[in-house]
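Notes from the 1:1 (GR / supervisor)

We went over the backlog. Supervisor wanted to see one worked example end to end before approving the batch request, so GR pasted a single chain during the call. The sequence is below; no edits were made to it. Supervisor asked that the structure be written out right there so they could see what the output format looks like.
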Amino acid sequence: MIELYNSFSNTYIEAGCDEVGRGCLAGPVVAAAVIVNKNFKQNLVNDSKTLNFKIRQNLDLYIRENAVDFAIAELSPEFIDEHNILNASLHAMHLALDQLKTRPELILVDGNRFHPYNYIPHHCIIKGDSKYLSIAAASILAKNYRDNLMIKLHNEFPEYGWNTNFGYCTKTHQKALKKYGPNIHHRKSFRLEYDVEI
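Structure output shown during the call:
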């Protein structure tokens, strides 16, 4: 496992931000912000996409107990449809930052886009969740939160297979959309009709 950087600046209080659910057809977009310090150990913390469900669930508790501060925010499919997924993703990061009790002095963002936040400097980092601990921790909290939410929604709408695809565009999800159509949790501004072999 590649060792992640604990800090970008070694000087400022840094908040790492990441989001999950941008490419989904259903469910909210979720973002997290996490502040760690030099005492925060990597353990298995890494880009959430490289970790299995059980490891992520265990790391979730470690992050919550050992981070200096953390926060999670979500925005609904309705907000996504009204403002587009990019703006919704960035706004969700702002909402997560709003909830931090510790004010960051530098914001590290996974990806290449961000809207300035409260006059705090920010730095966009491509694949930042595989480079910096704070961003990786944010990716884990956001993914766990969203996956658990989609599993709950699966109990309400089991035909779409959200307990395994979590709202992403899989063949199971596509076939269910062809058969049942979208429901209240689908993003109406996304392309929801697919030609698939049934």
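Supervisor's comment: The mean pLDDT is 92.
Batch request approved.
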